[in-house]
Design goal:
The structure is a single chain. About 35% of the residues lie in helices and about 20% in strands. It is of the alpha/beta class. It has an 8-stranded parallel beta sheet. It is globular and about 50 Å long.
Length: about 230
C-alpha cells in the first residue's frame, strides 16, 4: 500500500474509534513518525495530508527540516533530547515531547530566552517503569511540573508516555488510564506556565486504545511508512 493509502486507513480507524468513544476526530492530532524515513518519503506523507512530523534524532530533524522547508509541516521532537543538542532545534520545533529532567528544561529555557522564544514542551512519564525508557515516575510528576514554574520561556502543554509494547494492547490499557488521571489532576492544579492541552500517547500497535482513554496526540510510524530496520517498537 502507498503512504497515502496507509494514512487514509489510519484516519478511518481514528474516525471509528472516536465514534465509539463519543469523541471528535478533529480533536486528535496525528503525528507521523518519520524516523529513518528519507525526506522524499516524508514529503509523500505531507502531500497526503500529514500536518505534523515527529523525529527521534536531532540530526534527522534538522536535515528534513531543511529539505521540507517549502512545506507548512510542523516538527515535533519526540525522542530523548540531549542538552547539547537543544540549540540545533530550539527554533525549528512546534513541540518537544520528551522533557524529563530539570537540567534539560533549564537548557531549553536558556536557549529559548536567547532566541526570544517561548518553547512548548510536554513532560515525559515512564508509567511502565521500564529501565530502557526515559521519563519521570508518576510519583514525581506533580512536583516536577511545579518546579518548571521558574522557567519563563517554557510553556508546559501536557504530558507524554511511551507505553510498554504488548502483543495484545488491552494488556496496557491501564497505562493510558493512569496517564489520563495524571493529566486531569495536573489540569486542576493551576500551575504557572502550565496549560494541560495535550495528552500524547499511543503508537501503531495501541493508538485506538490510547484514544479511547483520552489521548489527543498519537505518534504513528510503522502504520504510515511501513516496517523499518531498527529494533525499537513504534
Amino acid at each position: 500500500m502507498s503512504i497515502k493509502e496507509n494514512i487514509d486507513g489510519i484516519l478511518e480507524r481514528i474516525a471509528d474509534v472516536c465514534e465509539r468513544s463519543g469523541r471528535n476526530p478533529d480533536d486528535i492530532t496525528l503525528i507521523a513518525v518519520s524516523k529513518t524515513v528519507n525526506a522524499d518519503r516524508a514529503r509523500e506523507a505531507v502531500e497526503a495530508g500529514i500536518l505534523n512530523l515527529g523525529e527521534n534524532r536531532v540530526q534527522e530533524l534538522t536535515d528534513k527540516y531543511e529539505k521540507l522547508s517549502d512545506t507548512e509541516v510542523k516538527w515535533h521532537m519526540i525522542g530523548h533530547l540531549q542538552k547539547n543538542k537543544v540549540k540545533y532545534i530550539i527554533d525549528k520545533v512546534e513541540l518537544i515531547h520528551s522533557v524529563e529532567s530539570i537540567e534539560l528544561a533549564n537548557e531549553i529555557n536558556k536557549r529559548a530566552e536567547k532566541n526570544n522564544l517561548k518553547v512548548n514542551i510536554l513532560v515525559e512519564l515512564n508509567i511502565g517503569e521500564e529501565e530502557s525508557k526515559f521519563g519521570i515516575s508518576e510519583e514525581s510528576v506533580y512536583d516536577f511540573v511545579k518546579s518548571l514554574e521558574q522557567f519563563e520561556n517554557i510553556n508546559v502543554l501536557g504530558i507524554m508516555t511511551v507505553a510498554p509494547f504488548a502483543e495484545d494492547p488491552e494488556e496496557i490499557r491501564w497505562v493510558f488510564k493512569k496517564m489520563k488521571v495524571i493529566f486531569d489532576k495536573l489540569s486542576s492544579m493551576n500551575i504557572k506556565n502550565s496549560n494541560m492541552k495535550f495528552l500524547s500517547m499511543g503508537m501503531t500497535n495501541d493508538f485506538e486504545i490510547a484514544i479511547e482513554e483520552g489521548a489527543n496526540i498519537i505518534r504513528i510510524g510503522t502504520a504510515v511508512f511501513g516496517e523499518r530496520t531498527y529494533k525499537e517498537e513504534e
